[in-house]
Amino acid sequence: MTPIQTRDPLQIAESWMREGRDVAIATVVETWGSAPRPVGSHLVIDADGHFEGSVSGGCVEGAVVAEAADVLEDGKPRMLEFGVADETAWEVGLSCGGRIKVYVERLG
């Protein structure tokens, strides 16, 4: 298996869609402070919870994957916000500071 850093999440999403899998994509749209991934970073998620890519270096991926499952089910995109001023900051691991906004939408 190729290390995650060298795999292109968009190519993986295309491959999954060709296989007939339902796919959502999460995109970093805004950061502030110590967010570990830049704007434009992607995480792709299929309906079985498999994912590739990263939107935060591991801090919020679990929460994003859970929201992506809902996006795949109801088809409604979501804007997610995480940060130290947010009540979920300690839960998702952004205790180092900073904020991140991630847009999650269904592909295809």
Structure description:
The two termini are 26 Å apart. The model has no long low-confidence stretch (mean pLDDT 85). The chain is α+β, with helices and mostly antiparallel strands and 108 residues long. The chain is globular, with a radius of gyration of 13 Å. It has three helices and five strands. It has one domain. Strands 3-2-1-5-4 form a five-stranded antiparallel β-sheet.
Give the topology, please.
Elements: H1 9-18, E1 23-32, E2 42-46, E3 51-53, H2 61-74, E4 78-83, H3 89-92, E5 99-106
Antiparallel strand pairs: 1-2, 1-5, 2-3, 4-5
Share in β-strands: 25-35%
Total helical elements: 3
Kindly report the spatial arrangement of strands forming the biggest sheet: 3-2-1-5-4
Low-confidence stretches: none
Number of strands: 5
Which class best fits the helix and strand makeup? alpha+beta
**Which sheet architecture does the biggest sheet show?**
5 strands, antiparallel
Tally of distinct domains: 1
Q: Which outline best applies?
A: globular
Share of helix among residues? 25-40%
The arrangement of helices and strands along the chain is: HEEEHEHE
Look at the structure and give the mean pLDDT: 85
Q: Radius of gyration in whole Å, from Cα? A: 13 Å
From the N-terminal CA to the C-terminal CA, the straight-line distance is 26 Å
What is the structure about, briefly put?
It is an enzyme of class 1 (oxidoreductase). GO terms for molecular function: xanthine dehydrogenase activity. With 108 residues, the protein is of the alpha+beta class.
Which keywords apply here?
EC 1.17.1.4, 5-stranded antiparallel sheet, xanthine dehydrogenase activity, Xanthine dehydrogenase subunit A, oxidoreductase, 3 helices, 108 residues, alpha+beta
